[in-house]
Write a structure and sequence with these properties.
The complex is a heterodimer of chains A (262) and B (660). Chain A is an alpha/beta fold and 262 residues long. Chain A has helices spanning 50-57, 80-85, 103-109, 119-124, 127-146, 162-175, 192-209, 220-226, 244-249, 251-258; strands spanning 10-21, 24-35, 39-43, 65-70, 73-75, 88-91, 180-184, 212-216, 229-234, 237-242. Chain A is built from 10 helices and 10 strands. In chain A, strand 1 and strand 2 form a beta hairpin. Chain B is globular. By secondary structure, chain B is α/β, with parallel strands linked by helices. The chains are: A alpha/beta (262), B alpha/beta (660). Chain A binds chain B through residues 137-138, 141-142, 144-146, 148, 150-151, 153-154, 192-193, 196, 204, 207-208, and chain B through 33-36, 145-146, 148-149, 260-261, 263-264, 267, 625-627.
Chain lengths: 262, 660
Amino acid sequence: MSAQPPAGEALLAVDDISLSFGGVRALADVSFDVRQGEIRAIIGPNGAGKSSMLNVINGVYHPQQGTVRFRGETRRRVDPHRAAANGIARTFQNIALFKGMSVLDNIMTGRNLKMRATLFEQAIYVGRNRREELAHRAKVEEIIDFLQIEHIRKTPVGRLPYGLQKRVELARALAAEPTLLLLDEPMAGMNVEEKQDMCRFVLDVNEEFGTTIVLIEHDMGVVMDISERIVVLDYGRKIADGSPEEVRANPAVIDAYLGVAH
Amino acid sequence: MHAGAPSEADTFPKLLLEHARLRGAATAMREKDLGIWQAWSWSEVAENVRDLAGGLSALGLRRGENLAIIGDNRPQLYWAMSAAQALGAVPVPLYQDAVADEMAYILDDADIRYAVVEDQEQVDKLLEIKHRLHKLETIIYEEARGMRNYAQPFLHRYAEVQRLGRKLHEDHPAFLQREVDQGAGQDVAIMLYTSGTTGKPKGVCHTHAALITAARGGCEFDRLGPGDEVLSYLPMAWVGDNLFSYAQAMVGGFTINCPESGDTVMTDMREIGPTYYFAPPRVYENLLTQVMIRMEDASRVKRALFHYFLRVARRCGAEILDRAPGVSVIDRLLYRVGRLLVYGPLRNVLGMSRIRVAYTAGAAIGPDLFRFYRAIGVNLKQLYGSTETCAYVCLQPDGKIKLDSVGPPAPGVEVQLAADGEVLVRSRAMLKEYYKRPDATAEVFDDQGYFRTGDAGFFDQDGHLKIIDRAKDVGRLSNGAIFAPNYIENKLKFFPQIKEAVAFGHGRDEVCAFVNIDLGAVGNWAERRGLAYAGYTDLAGKPEVYDLIQECVEKVNAELAADPMVADSQVHRFLVLHKELDPDDDELTRTRKVRRNFIAEKYAPLVEALYAGKRSCHIETEVKFEDGRRGKIAADVQIRQVQTFPSAPTTPAVTQRKAA
């Protein structure tokens, strides 16, 4: 188990968040918490503000109102770099990898924040840097083994099929050894088998590393299966929050998202 | 005996201990893990086996009992094999990709109380069927990942079991030696289940003596010993892997290399550069297909070079490898240049730079394919054998290679032919019995102690054995002409575009066939033509693909027409199946042989449509996904009429074309 509060306590709490872009209200007074060690899903129709919520959590967007409390530390403004250094890693809805670089190198970039050697040391590969690289490489190999992507270690990411790219992105996020992992539609566009693989990996990450996970996903089967609690957003407002059973039974959710006559 | 290999030891554990004594520091095994090749010396292997054996004994595994082993080729699982044998128990390796239901039969039949498995995936399968298997008591898993929340008391970690064994060894240092000393050559060393092409799988029991005879014969035949490297990547449940990776390595004292995962075999092979290699024809075929696909993407100059020197190699490469006389000086020179520019780099890409001996067996290999590897300087040879005969009946000696035979009988093996052409074998490398099946055991031996292989074949004038088909599969067309389905299917499968084929014709007046396209090769071909497709089913139904396959079938027909014996077996109509034949749907055996009768029954409407001369047929098929769920694939399958040729060899141009 990694750092900070014991399992079950709130690792992250967003309080009364409002975010607008000009006249568009992306989020309005949204509050919820994420407990240490849980898998928390955010669902909602397109444009409900799910990705915006993730962006607020890791500091890409700065909300006009409200606070984010992470590991007991309350903040209003934080930049993504700080967030990452504090233990928040994420993957993106539309894959954001370095296409021309190998899988291995892409995952190594996830270790970047943990490198202490100076640029000069890195350039000539001596001393601290040498030791560091070896240690980081060992960690990266563990992740490669964990996600079963040995066979594509040296393949440029751009040549991989979509499902594998998603897995590489997850690998890179894991390389940062995050306390909190934000997954933006990790299973979008995958076939059934790929989805199942991904589900297993998400559960394994949660179980093996004790990583707390917040994920956005459209596949209701997946969400209901793997998450412990679900937040439902609609037009930037929170309309429900609870266990999968509670959310499934909530009439507001059924109307807004699961569809009345779908 | 080569390089002072031990000769006194009559069981595998004794061989292992002897290697540990004689060459303790030499590398016995390697496995790529976390991106690095980890190595174990003979003495480390012996220690690990000792600890595991001790632990298994402490958990209650008894002499004479069977131990199931399930997983990919991992050193730890090979140790489990040795550990069981050290205790006088019998390892029973199972195919690791079998679904739980298939495993249940074998686990039950073999009275399994103990199982050593690789990881969570295998544990889950066993848990799924455990309620039906009243005998199964203890499961030992190697890989701890994902196992955190498994609290069942009958689950044990491999490392924990070894720790138990280490303690036992500290308390009773002589324990293992005493157990090993009790073993004798006549004890059963391993039980391998037949693939079950016919009926339920049967457990084939081999003694240490039989396997050691076969292994020693093979090692002497090809001068294998310490310093040789083999890549262990074929299922441990297959006799080939057991002979080549386990028995021969134990006898010859060479190094076993386990790949990182099933998907990395090609990279791992290149890194290791094995000197000794064994693969069924389909692996050689896949490698070649991949090379050819990649060559298509190469620049024009490279492509021209490649094809030019390949033609040179086809002309004289095999002869140069065999040191046959009659190769012109110019050809020799050209071949040298070719080796520098094409064959050498190509062999390097394939991981075959250091190969001294490569074997293929298990199915017929295409003459083109076979010749290709020999032409680029890989000493590829064929052997003939079966699970029951320790894969040791015929071997092709260096320099006396024929494309269409499997070589003369191996040293110490007697081969005879029955009146109906069935191949009969007698040797020491022979099964002891089928487990709990005295009836079946009695059935396969004739009164002179010859084993009935079930294969039909004949000897050529040089005493080399030629296998044509399974004896029982050889049928007759309604006009009485011989019909060897395998022969036709193989001819079809020799095209890279065709992955599987099933020929029908016994008792009919014409031959018709099902075809599975190779998604890799045909998919690439389609992309190159800008042909969009959604998946296998969609691609298989494209008229362009049908045209492509039709060309292949017609070429086969032309070949068949040239040989009067099989001229009547020309394919009249074919269809491209809407789904890939899959072992999970019982359509192929685990070693990927087609189960012709099962397929004929399952797709009866399609067979009927073929013979009724319909142009298309609608079919719905149930499929099993990897996770055991079921689904349906439906499609309208087209049927194509194919050009056939008159039996007398004529030019295709003048033969009339039967309606397309």
